TrEMBL record:
It comes from the Bacteria. InterPro entries: 4Fe4S_Fe-S-bd, 4Fe4S_Fe_S_CS, Cyt_c_oxidase_cbb3_FixG, Electron_Trans/Redox, FixG_C, Ig-like_fold. This is Cytochrome c oxidase accessory protein CcoG. PROSITE patterns: 4FE4S_FER_1, 4FE4S_FER_2. GO terms for cellular component: plasma membrane. PANTHER family: FERREDOXIN-TYPE PROTEIN NAPH. The keyword Acetylation does not apply. Residues 248-281 form the 4Fe-4S ferredoxin-type domain.
C-alpha cells in the first residue's frame, strides 16, 4: 500500500494570486488620442441619444410595457423579433471579422468596460494626481487629507455612476419624465432598482475591478485565440531588435555596449491598464489599447532610435514574411456580413405593418350543412404593427363560390401593436371541388388605405361529389 506524501514545509502553492492594484501611467500619443476620441464619442452617444426626439416621442425608446421599440422613425413589435436576432448575429460576426483583422480592437477602444474605466481613471488623476502620487497616497496612513481626497473622488464617481444608471433606464422610460420623478422620489420600484443597480455596477466595475473584468470575467479573452492567425494585427515587442535590454545614457551607441534598443525603462509596463509586460510576448490579458506603443515611441524619440520597438504588427511580419490581408476567413466573414446586413436592411424596409395569420381547426376536417355545402372553421389573427388604431376588412379569394362567414361587424378595429383573434368559417358547395383539398387566400385590408394590406394562404378540406 502506497503512503501519502506530505509536501515539505514552505512548498505551498496558491491557486489564486492576490490582486496587486494596477496604477496605469497617463500616456500621450497617436493611439491615446484615438482612444480619447472613441471614449468621448461613445459616451456622447450613450448620454445624448435618449434626449433626442422624433415627432412627439423619444427617438430611441424601448417601451417594454407597450411591447414596442422605437428607433428613430421605425417602430418594432414582438413580431419583428427575427430582426433583433439578425442584428445580434451581425454584431457577433462583426466582432469575429474585426478580431481576425486587427486583434482586440474592440477591447482597446470601444468596449464599455474600457470606455467607463478610462473615464473613471481621468477623474482619479485629476483628484489624486499622477501614478506616483496615487501610489504614495494609498501607502500613506489614513488622515484628514486622505479622507478628503478619497471622499471627493468617490463622491464624483458615485454621481457619475448614478447619472449612468439614470441614462440607462432612460432608454426604457422617457428620460424627460424620468429625471424629475427620480429627484422627487416618485420613480417606481423597478425603475429605482435598475437605476441603482446599473449605477452600482458602473461604480464597481470601472472604479474597483477594472482589469479584473477583462482578465477573469470577460469570456472574449479566452476564445480570441480561435480567431487569431499569423496575419492578425497584434501589438508586439521586437525581441530581435530590443534584446539584450539594459539602461544606458542618451547618445550611447547600444552596439558598442552589446545591447539592444530596449533601455529597460519599464514604462511600457507602467502604462498598461492590465499590468502586463508586453516584452513577455502575446498574452491574453492584452486588450490592444496601444498605450505601450505610444510610450515606447516617445522613449525611442528621446534616445534617437527608430520608432516601432513596440508596434502594431503580425507574427508573419515579425519573421520577415509577407502579411496577407485577404485570407479565406476574412473573405468568408465579409461575405456573410454583407449578406446578413442586406437581409436586415431588406427586412426593415419591407416590413408590412398589417399582419394576418390563419389557423385551421384541426379537430374537425369539415362539416356538412343542411343545404349540402361543406364548412371549414378557422381562427384568424389580425396584427397591427403601426402606431395608431386601424380597422381591417377580411375577405377571401381563390375558391369560386366560397362564402366567408364572420360573426362580427366589419371593419374590425385592431389597436396599435395589438392582435385580435377572429373566428371565421368558409362554406363551399363541394361540387366545385376536383380534389379533396384546395387552397384559398385570406386577405386583410385597412379601412381607408387601399394600398395597405396583407394576405395568408390556407387550406380548405372537403369531399368530392
Amino acid at each position: 500500500m502506497s503512503k501519502a506524501v506530505t509536501p515539505p514545509e514552505g512548498n505551498e502553492q496558491e491557486f489564486y494570486a492576490k490582486r496587486a492594484k494596477v496604477y496605469p501611467r497617463e500616456v500621450h500619443g497617436l493611439f491615446a488620442r484615438l482612444r480619447t476620441a472613441g471614449v468621448l464619442g461613445l459616451l456622447g452617444i450613450f448620454y445624448g441619444a435618449p434626449w433626442l426626439t422624433w415627432g412627439d416621442r423619444q427617438a430611441i425608446w424601448f417601451d417594454l410595457p407597450g411591447r414596442k421599440f422605437h428607433v428613430i422613425g421605425w417602430t418594432f413589435w414582438p413580431q419583428d423579433f427575427f430582426l433583433l436576432a439578425l442584428l445580434l448575429i451581425i454584431a457577433a460576426l462583426s466582432l469575429f471579422f474585426f478580431t481576425t483583422l486587427a486583434g482586440r480592437l474592440w477591447c482597446g477602444y470601444a468596449c464599455p468596460q474600457t470606455v467607463w474605466t478610462e473615464a473613471f481613471l481621468w477623474i482619479e488623476r485629476r483628484i489624486e494626481g499622477d501614478r506616483s502620487a496615487q501610489m504614495k497616497l494609498d501607502k500613506a496612513p489614513w488622515g484628514g487629507r486622505k479622507l478628503v481626497i478619497k471622499g471627493t473622488k468617490h463622491t464624483i464617481w458615485l454621481v457619475f455612476a448614478l447619472f449612468t444608471g439614470l441614462t440607462f433606464v432612460g432608454y426604457f422610460t422617457p428620460i424627460a419624465e424620468l429625471m424629475p420623478r427620480f429627484f422627487t422620489f416618485q420613480t417606481g420600484g423597478w425603475e429605482t432598482f435598475w437605476i441603482l443597480f446599473y449605477g452600482f455596477a458602473t461604480w464597481g466595475n470601472a472604479g474597483f475591478m477594472r482589469e479584473q473584468v477583462c482578465i477573469y470575467m470577460c469570456p472574449y479573452a479566452r476564445f480570441q485565440s480561435a480567431m487569431f492567425d499569423r496575419d492578425t494585427l497584434i501589438i508586439s515587442y521586437d525581441e530581435n531588435r530590443g534584446e539584450p535590454r539594459g539602461s544606458r545614457k542618451r547618445g550611447v551607441d547600444p552596439k558598442q555596449k552589446g545591447l539592444g534598443d530596449c533601455i529597460d525603462c519599464t514604462l511600457c509596463v507602467q502604462v498598461c491598464p492590465t499590468g502586463i509586460d508586453i516584452r513577455d510576448g502575446l498574452q491574453y490579458q492584452c486588450i490592444g489599447c496601444a498605450a505601450c506603443v505610444d510610450v515606447c515611441d516617445q522613449v525611442m524619440d528621446k534616445m534617437g532610435y527608430p520608432r516601432g520597438l513596440v508596434r502594431y504588427t503580425t507574427e508573419n511580419a515579425m519573421e520577415g514574411k509577407v502579411t496577407k490581408v485577404l485570407r479565406p476567413r476574412v473573405v468568408l466573414y465579409a461575405l456573410l456580413l454583407l449578406v446578413l446586413m442586406a437581409g436586415l436592411l431588406y427586412g426593415i424596409m419591407s416590413r408590412n405593418p398589417v399582419g394576418i395569420d390563419v389557423i385551421r381547426d384541426r379537430n374537425v376536417l369539415f362539416r356538412e350543412l343542411a343545404d349540402g355545402r361543406v364548412e371549414n372553421v378557422y381562427t384568424l389573427k389580425l396584427l397591427n404593427k403601426s402606431d395608431s388604431l386601424r380597422e381591417y376588412h377580411v375577405e377571401i379569394r381563390g375558391l369560386e363560390g366560397a362564402e366567408l362567414v364572420i360573426d362580427r361587424v366589419m371593419p374590425v378595429p385592431v389597436p396599435a401593436g395589438g392582435v385580435v383573434e377572429l373566428p371565421a368559417r368558409v362554406r363551399l358547395d363541394p361540387v366545385v371541388l376536383d380534389a379533396p383539398t384546395a387552397e384559398l387566400v385570406f386577405i386583410a385590408r385597412v379601412e381607408g388605405e387601399p394600398d395597405a394590406g396583407n394576405e395568408r394562404a390556407g387550406r380548405f378540406v372537403g369531399r368530392m361529389r
